[in-house]
Write a structure and sequence with these properties.
Blueprint: H1 3-7, H2 10-20, H3 32-46, H4 50-63, H5 68-80, H6 84-97, H7 102-114, H8 118-128, H9 135-151, H10 155-168, H11 173-197, H12 202-214, H13 218-231, H14 238-247, H15 252-268, H16 273-285, H17 289-302, H18 307-319, H19 323-336, H20 341-353, H21 357-384
Helix pairs in contact: 2-5, 3-4, 4-5, 5-6, 6-7, 7-8, 7-9, 8-9, 9-10, 10-11, 12-13, 13-14, 14-15, 15-16, 16-17, 16-18, 17-18, 18-19, 19-20, 20-21
Length: 409
């Protein structure tokens, strides 16, 4: 049995039936028999007896082949009675009569898919997947279309479809898993193409470094980044990427080299905003708050919504007791990203300094909530023995966790 039938609930059939009934269709008053069959069919639908409605609609289309309402309903009912070969002609006829029926055309595509007519199925489902409004039916059509595209190795088309589905259902686990599989396959395909086209290139070493980072082989990644630089010192972004790897190392010597690489990255590309932010962090760690502020401001002048730069500048203002300047920076970061754990942490500390204990307590609770979530993510990625995304490893570096605020008596 085709998995498509499992994924579509029977209730969708009735939604399709109701929307397929086109108002204002001309009825031939002289043809009493088709009208009576149609009336009976609709009565059977009202009492949830679709199997009895099928012969009634069949009688209508036998007399009136261009009756859109009867053709569409008959096709829908036959499909959900698991008779796709019988449904096909009626769904196609409905689309011939009126091409602007996205649900019917989507169902036609599913029907063609079950019958192995993949080219026709792709054409019909591609034409309507973006305009379907019912979430469950849109998901069914979209995932089926992706099955066709991936089976024929058309990963780019599959990625475009899954992107649309994610926009409309960003938390659906089935859609997210399919997105993961497609993007993993795309990455593997690109890496294979690179290894065949330019195995000795700097880009190949850069890609190797990223793969080694992903599996937590930081020394190997650093070595690969250095090989890439030896081949092409001007490779875009390479010095920043090496600096990030060095900064993540446990070696103090690597940390010192990281600062040097950040500086080179910024020198080669004055618009490398994150290099300026990282240098600002290092300056702030050394207590050179004015130099750090200049670097953070430089980054913000190029990218106003850079959360890392705003957090860094807020830290500087807070340490200089310029709390009124720090506060709006942290509030803006959280306005744009309420899940930013470090912003909640620092805002809690700032509120405590400003003698606002209730606000501090609230932000500390938010910080703890997102910290717990990210601790869970670390465990998941640790189980897989791969490097967690940066957003899953952010923490309260450079700060001390604020104690629970107490209201003075």
């Amino acid at each position: 049995m085709c998995p498509v039938l499992h994924r579509v609930p029977f209730g969708v059939a009735f939604a399709l039936i109701l929307t397929a009934q086109i108002s204002g269709l001309a009825q031939q008053q002289a043809a009493v028999s088709p009208q009576e069959h149609a009336r009976r069919a609709n009565e059977f639908l009202k009492v949830n007896q679709p199997e009895k409605a099928i012969p009634e609609f069949a009688a209508v289309v036998a007399e009136e082949p261009d009756n859109l309402d009867a053709q569409a309903n008959l096709g829908v009912l036959l499909y959900f009675q698991r008779r796709p070969s019988d449904a096909l002609e009626h769904l196609r006829k409905a689309i011939q009569i009126n091409p602007n029926l996205p649900k019917i055309q989507g169902l036609l595509g599913l029907c063609e898919y079950q019958l192995g007519q993949l080219d026709a199925a792709r054409a019909d489902m591609s034409a309507v997947v973006g305009s379907l409004t019912d979430p469950k039916f849109r998901k069914e059509v979209g995932l089926t279309l992706i099955e066709i595209e991936t089976a024929q190795q058309n990963l780019t088309a599959a990625a475009a479809i899954i992107g649309k589905l994610r926009d409309q259902a960003p938390a659906d686990p089935e859609i997210l898993y399919v997105a993961y599989r497609i993007n993993t396959d795309l990455a593997g395909e690109a890496l294979l193409s690179l290894s065949l086209a330019a195995p000795q290139s700097a880009q190949m070493q850069q890609a190797i470094a990223h793969e080694l980072e992903r599996i937590r082989d930081l020394p190997g990644a650093i070595a690969a980044f250095r090989k890439a630089i030896a081949i092409d010192p001007n490779l875009p972004g390479i010095h920043f990427e090496l600096a990030e790897a060095l900064h993540g190392s446990d070696s103090q010597a690597d940390h010192t080299q990281a600062e040097h690489e950040y500086a080179i990255a910024l020198e080669k590309n004055p618009h490398e905003v994150q290099a300026a932010v990282r240098l600002g962090d290092l300056q702030a760690d050394r207590g050179d708050l004015d130099s750090a502020a200049g670097l953070y401001q430089r980054a913000l002048s190029q990218r106003l919504n850079n959360a890392d730069a705003a957090l860094g500048l807020a830290r500087v203002y807070s340490e200089k007791n310029e709390n009124d300047k720090a506060l709006p920076l942290l509030q803006q970061v959280l306005k744009e990203d309420p899940t930013n754990m470090l912003a909640h942490f620092r805002l809690s500390a700032l509120y405590r300094k400003m003698h606002r204990p209730e606000d501090a307590k609230r932000e500390l609770a938010e910080y703890q909530k997102y910290k717990d979530i990210k601790d869970q993510l670390r465990q998941v990625y640790g189980t897989m023995r791969i490097q967690a995304p940066h957003s899953a490893t952010d923490d309260e570096s450079h700060d001390t966790a604020p104690p629970s605020p107490k209201v003075p008596h």
